């Protein structure tokens, strides 16, 4: 079994419990709320309240979509129970995009994503996910006109598990219309605070405490997860890319499924040479050919538990724009 095949089996196994941890929902909501305050910063003419798709079209590509965090950010009342208090709060906001196309390597995760979209009343023309891998070196998928020309392409908490972050940013850029934007979320290198047993932040403990060991070279990357041990991700999925395989892991449930997921996650991370400082992210976005690059951080840290650790982590958002095509002089 190849690493990519094992990865798909793992995610198909845990898709039902993908986002079940209590703090997972709190973190997701904080990130969602923060991003919604930054719509102007993203630089895309999102749909305004009171307008319709006949007035204005905004297309969104959600890559490594999982169960749909980034889609939920763009569609405020998608994928939540219409009877919940949260839904009541969210439904006063107009949708920001007219169409979302999503991609994930896990068939079961795609099924979960689509089931939630359907339950929320959205047709496949408005929101739909497919199985695919844009980072496959030889055969990136999916292809076709419907998978090009997006206004915005997002990847939530995935880039620090891509083997080649420049390639990943470039592949997302290539799916945009000229002037479209790539937006990612991730964790800031050096932005962790340790927490005590009650979950309170320990002042003066700033650093990078969720660390992983890179396979084969013993190198510690100061932005990721504790590699070689059970580890969890603040938004439920992590990704890697090895020998053309886009690799994607839900680590929220690490340790709940025996040795199978533990061993698979140990082999999941293949990041080399990337820095997830503000300047580091700006650097690889720029190298990918994006312009108007900016990186911001959430002012409030988010609380997480994983691998026996309790941490407060700093979330970053990065934005970069595909350049407008040069006009022909002919």
From TrEMBL:
<dbReference type="InterPro" id="IPR013217">
    <property type="entry name" value="Methyltransf_12"/>
</dbReference>
<feature type="domain" description="Methyltransferase type 12">
    <location>
        <begin position="97"/>
        <end position="182"/>
    </location>
</feature>
<protein>
    <recommendedName>
        <fullName>Methyltransferase type 12 domain-containing protein</fullName>
    </recommendedName>
</protein>
<feature type="compositionally biased region" description="Basic and acidic residues">
    <location>
        <begin position="219"/>
        <end position="245"/>
    </location>
</feature>
<dbReference type="InterPro" id="IPR029063">
    <property type="entry name" value="SAM-dependent_MTases_sf"/>
</dbReference>
<dbReference type="Pfam" id="PF08242">
    <property type="entry name" value="Methyltransf_12"/>
</dbReference>
<feature type="region of interest" description="Disordered">
    <location>
        <begin position="194"/>
        <end position="261"/>
    </location>
</feature>
